Amino acid sequence: MAQTWLVVGLGNPGPQYELTRHNVGQLVVDELADRRSERFSAHKGNARVAETWLRPGGPKVVLAKPNSFMNVSGGPVSALAKYYGVDPEHVIVIHDELDIPFDTVKLKIGGGHGGHNGVRDVAKALGTPDFPRVRVGIGRPPGRQDPADWVLDPFSSADRKQLPLLLSDAADAVEKLIDEGLLAAQQKHHAPRA
């Protein structure tokens, strides 16, 4: 039987956070669900999930948006991984990344959390940092704005114009990672745009 993948978009619950930079992970999961005409439903693992397939015939993909706040994302991620029998190497976490320019997508497995409290909490709950990550660049705040405020701000109007392309790129990266592995996904998404 093909391995099930758990694809988690990190973010904060509630409409006031929906279109903020910190919720870009959940926006990518929404894009993946939209591509498959899937809707999310409540799950006992304190998350909303959509069970689907990468393509007809497999592999199975569980798209998830934790109902918890970002800093305590680990509990729902760990509960879902247990429920679906998914090992950490098949848990893809999609999150915002300050140290990557806006409109850029990077992938990696393992490593540090780079000060990202959601990633830190997931690593703690899974008992390992060795899970794939799709890091969606939101860039650093201008001037002296506190990064903690910046991530909770809505995207600027200029960024909102570019956002659909960024979400599409990140969703493509997730699909390539599942389909062809990390290296192929990195080669496609880390290359400079033509």
UniProtKB/TrEMBL annotation:
InterPro entries: Pept_tRNA_hydro (IPR001328), Pept_tRNA_hydro_CS (IPR018171), Pept_tRNA_hydro_sf (IPR036416)
Residues annotated as binding tRNA: 17, 69, 71, 117
Principal location: cytoplasm
Protein's UniProt keywords contain tRNA-binding: yes
Site (Discriminates between blocked and unblocked aminoacyl-tRNA) residue list: 12
UniProtKB keywords: Cytoplasm, Hydrolase, RNA-binding, tRNA-binding
EC numbers on record: 3.1.1.29
Record-level Gene Ontology MF annotations: peptidyl-tRNA hydrolase activity
Active-site residues, record numbering mapped to chain: 22 (proton acceptor)
Locations listed in the record: Cytoplasm
Keyword Hydrolase: yes
Taxonomy, superkingdom: Bacteria
Catalytic reaction(s) noted: an N-acyl-L-alpha-aminoacyl-tRNA + H2O = an N-acyl-L-amino acid + a tRNA + H(+)
Record site feature (Stabilizes the basic form of H active site to accept a proton), residues: 96
Entry's family note: Belongs to the PTH family.
Function: Catalyzes the release of premature peptidyl moieties from peptidyl-tRNA molecules trapped in stalled 50S ribosomal subunits, and thus maintains levels of free tRNAs and 50S ribosomes. Hydrolyzes ribosome-free peptidyl-tRNAs (with 1 or more amino acids incorporated), which drop off the ribosome during protein synthesis, or as a result of ribosome stalling.
Quaternary structure annotation from Swiss-Prot or TrEMBL: Monomer.
PANTHER family registered for this protein in UniProt: PEPTIDYL-TRNA HYDROLASE
Protein name: Peptidyl-tRNA hydrolase
Gene: pth
